[in-house]
Structures are given as structure tokens and as C-alpha cells.
Specification:
677 residues; alpha/beta; Rossmann fold; 4 domains; 23 helices; 39% helix; 19% strand; globular; binds adenosine-5'-diphosphate; binds magnesium ion
Amino acid sequence: MLANSILDIKGVGEKFAEDLEGLNIYSIEDLLLYFPSRYDVFEIKPLSELIHEDKVTIEGRVLADPSLSFYGRKKSRLTFMVEVENVAVKAVMFNRAFAKNQLTSGEMVTLTGKWDAHRLQITVSNFTKGSLEKDSAIQPIYSVKGNITNYKLKKVIQEAIKSYGEQMEEILPQDYITAYKIPTRSEAIQTMHFPTNRIALKHARRRFTYEEFLLFQLKIQVLRKQRREASVGNAQDYDATKVEQFINQFPFTLTNAQSKSLQQILTDMKSPYRMNRLLQGDVGSGKTAVAAIALYAAVTAHKQGALMVPTEILAEQHYHSLTELFGDLARVELLTGSVKGKKRKEILAAVENHEIQILVGTHALIQDDVFFDELGLVIVDEQHRFGVEQRRLLSNKGLHPDVLFMTATPIPRTLAITAFGDMDVSVINEMPAGRKEIETYWTKANSFERVLQFIEKRVQEGEQAYIICPLIEESDKLDIQDAVDLHQQLLDYYSTSLQVGLMHGRLHSNEKDQVMKEFAANEIQILVSTTVVEVGVNVPNATIMVIYDAERFGLSQLHQLRGRVGRGDKQSYCILIADPKSETGKERMRIMTETNDGFELAEQDLKLRGPGDFFGTKQSGLPEFKVADMIHDYRALETARNDAQEIVEFNLLEEDPKFKKIRDLLAVEGIFDTKLD
Ligand code: ADP
Ligand code: MG
């Protein structure tokens, strides 16, 4: 049985099984589906065509048993002669003493390594026994660790395929296989591990790419359908008149895009279905205003609202602006990691008995000891900073709250339909009227003094500036040192003519608070900071954003930072200081100076950096595929999505027997048996 332990495979003992577990291989099926991470392609050429010092592959017969010599500590050298096209070639292999017993006189071998044309000698980096299929060969390279070598793994997979390969059942319906001209599951598995030629490999990969995408799309579509159908009774009966009045108190009218998004959100809130909506909008497009209105709607429905943000600074800022906005309409409180002791206890009690209607905070909001009376709406700002686990905790909390995720990182379509495929999406694709485009410049580090002079001039006009130093991790001492040093440098440079503040993650939250207050009040004119100010900070009088070592940031992050300025009616500037070495680095700087369009930048970023890096961290919530690649296999992704839509819409998983295998697979993953929410 495929589900049996790998111990059932001939040649796998306790020790080896333990090593395989290190690669997350437990069952025979796991092993068969442990595909190579890449392939080496070898091509055999006649000796006369081999180029001196090139990496080459030759094939020949071992002329005599290899001789092994040791030198130094633990170093070894294996030498043997190989007959290639009737010529004797010398082969040398370092530190692979074990190969001595595998290479016996008279045997055919294929050797890859560096060629020395003068001495007719090859320094072997890779060898296989036997001759290659015709004139080329594709060697699977697995990602291995510990005691497991590529060779050992290949051997055991070969054994597993021999004994169990046939048992690998097809899960896709036959008509799909025919229509897409893809190999069956067991054929494709065989090919993935032991490809005979490139074409076959391409088709095997195509098959698994489609299979992975289809299963993934089915999963999210089924979840989405279940969520829509599960009437959990959290219809929020808000007071439309009061909400209207609340909107009228803003000093501006909502843009069309804001109104439309708001309407979609309110409709979701009113319906008994649980909202799971993503609100996308470029920095400064006015998402926060929409969020505030939605929170107020929840309050008028006698529910509570929570606003969760990634940093304490941002939490405090939202807390202040919401307190001001709500006045007597609702009690707003702040709950972050630094709210402790008596104060925290008091807040927790008031949340539990509904004295607090709106709670703003970092992920302290979703800790175990926080109990809401009636949580109606949860808003997660800059959602890409939150991991899957946090999302889940949040959803599990309270009384099936409606959930709205807000992000200023425009999400390219590719990622939107994978990472967020189970969400409804609202887009604010319009900026409030009267905004001036931010002018972006790129200069080299040696022009820094000119930048400082420019800042001084603007400051004399009453404006303010940010100077951002890269910070990869908040705990990275070195990076904080950069900001501290730069701060000192500026203090020296400007002496007393203007005030320079410093902000970084190591400051206590009351210190951060103080610095932010002083900056907002224009008591500090220049704020040197790490990226802690990245998201959501709003000081409309700041018109200059200088980003130091800008090449160390991704495009989306640069765009986020740039969005800290251009928030008022004055002309704003973004100055990138960077000496990128690579072409892509230079390309990134150029793109930044050329466009202010967040969506376009996101697409470019994705192209330049790939999906793994796109969200910055591991906790991106992106699915991991074994074979499929979201960017390159985008067409397959769309096909799979369309197929999944049809299957789910017509209940085929439940009703058509040809999907039974797939349904069983999804059931194992808990898709059908667990209750949602
Ligand atoms: P986001 O959260 O999308 O970055 P904010 O909600 O913080 O954007 O809005 C940015 C700035 O624009 C704020 O100062 C806000 O008061 C203002 N603003 C929001 N909506 C409008 C609008 N419709 N017209 C004019 N100004 C607006
Ligand atoms: Mg915002």
C-alpha cells in the first residue's frame, strides 16, 4: 500500500527511514511524490569536440579497477582509466572513496567533470554507471540533507517505483487527461524521477503543475462556497441614517471608488454571510476613511469592531485619529504589547462587557485573554504583514466576525487568485481629487550633501522630511546603527538650524510616541528612521522622502515608503539614494522614477523578484507548490481556476463519480468534514 511506511521498501531500515523523515518523507507515497528540485542535463560529445577546461560529459568503459590514495586529513583521490572511442582517458575523482567499489573493470560509466584536453584527463564531479540514453541524459537532483545523498535517494526511489509505482492511481478524470494531452499519474511520476528525454519531462511537469493548481483552486473555491452558504447569523443591522450622518462629517466627499467599496462592505455586513473581503487601494487612496465608516456601521448595529495593524506606531496613530473622529459616538481603546498591568486588565474587562466598542491594536488583539462581548467586524490593515496563523486565530475569535483585510500593496492578479482566491475583493482605484504627483529622483550616495541642502531649503519653507535607513529585521543591531550614525551626522551637519529626530524599533513605545508627536507638530523637521514608519503613518506636512540605500528595498516597499509623503496639497518629492551594482537593481530605481502607479510597480516587482520575496517574509500566506510555479505557469493556473469554478459551481465533486478521487483527497485535508468558521 502506498500509505504504508517507507520501512516497507526493500533496503530501507530504521536508520534510513529516520533520515528520510528529515525530508518529510514518511510513507511510500510521500517518497514517490518527492520530486527532484532540478535536473542536470548532460550531453555527450565526441572527444575531438571537447573544449579544454569545459565541463563535459563522456561515456566509456572502465579499463582497470580504480586505485585509491589518501592524503591530508580525510582526503582521498580515486584514479582510473576509461576507454572512450578507443582512447584511454584518465579519470580523477576527489573525496569519493566510496565509488571505488562501484566502479569495476569492464563496466560502462558516464562521467561529468572538467576536461583537460592536453592530458586527456577528466576531473569527475558526477558519475553514473551505465551508458546514457542515446546522446543526452537528464539527471535528477534532489534537495537532500543530513545523511541522505542524491545517490541514495535515487536508489530508494527507483526501488519504490519498481514495487509500488503501478499502484499510484489516477485522480484526474480520463477526459481531462485526454483533452489536455497529459500523461497519467503513474507515468508522470516515473518520468519526474527518471526522465528519458526533455519532452517527456516537460509533459510530466505540465501534468503535476495542472494537478497542483486544480487541487488548490478546488480547495479555495469549495471553502468560498461553503462560507457563502453557511448562514451563521451575523447579519449586522446597522443604522443607515446614522452612517450617512457620519460620512457627512468628513471634511471631504468620498471618491466614487471609496463609495463603491464602502457599499460592497456594508452589503456584506448586512448579509448573514461572513464577510471575507480584501480592500485594495494605493497608499493615500483613502482606505482608512472607509474602514472608519465600516467600524461605525458595526457600532450602530450594537456590535464591536477591532482594527488590527502591524506596528505599535501605526496602532497609536489609528487610535488617535479614530478617537478624534468618533468623539462621543463610540469608546475607542488601544491594546498593544506595551499596554500592561492594571490598564490592560481594565481594557480587557471593558471589552468583555461592551463598554469599549472599538479596539485598536497590534496582534495583542488576538491573544487568548481578549474576549469581546459581540465582535461584529475585524479589520486587518496591511494584511500582508500577518501570517496565515494569525488570520486563522482572528477568524476563530468572537462571534463569526465579518473580516476586512486592507492592503496598500497592490496585489498582482496572479497572486490575487492564488493567495487570496477565497476572498472577495474591493478596489479603490482612484485618488482623492487635487493630489499632486510625487516627483521621484534617483541619485548616487556621493550627492548626499546636495540632498541635504535641498531638504534645508524646503524646511525653510515650512516643510518636513523623512530620511529612511534600511532595516531588514527589527532586531538587526547593525541596521539600527546605520540610522543612529546618520542621525548623528545630520545633527553635526545642520547643527542648530533645524531639529533632527531619530526613530527605530528599539525605542520604547513612549519614546516612539514622543518622537512621532514632535514630528507631527513640526517640532522636529527631519525624521531619520528605519522602516518602522513604513505603513500608514500620516503627517501631511512632510513633503520629502529620502530613502538611503534604496537598492536594498523591493519596489513595493519603496512605493509604500514614498506614500508617506504627498499627503497634503504641496508638491512632494521622493529621493532614492542608491548605488546598485546589478542591472535589476538599476532597473528597479529607474522604474521607481518613472511610475507612481502601485499596480504597475507590483507587477514589475513580482517579475523582478518572484513570488517568494514579494510579500517580504515567509509568512506571506502563499501556497507552496512542489512543481508548479505561479509566475511561469500562469496560463495553467487560469485553466485550473476555470475548471475548478465549473466543478464547484455544478457540485460535481459531490455528484459526479469521476471526481471521487479528488473529493477523497480534499476530504483528507479536512475541506469537507470540518465545520467552517
Ligand atoms: P490610505 O489608508 O489608503 O493610505 P488614508 O485613508 O490614510 O489613505 O487617506 C490619506 C489622506 O487622504 C488622509 O489625510 C485622508 O484624510 C485623506 N482623504 C481620504 N479620503 C479622501 C477624499 N475622498 N477626499 C479628500 N481627501 C481624502
Ligand atoms: Mg492607511
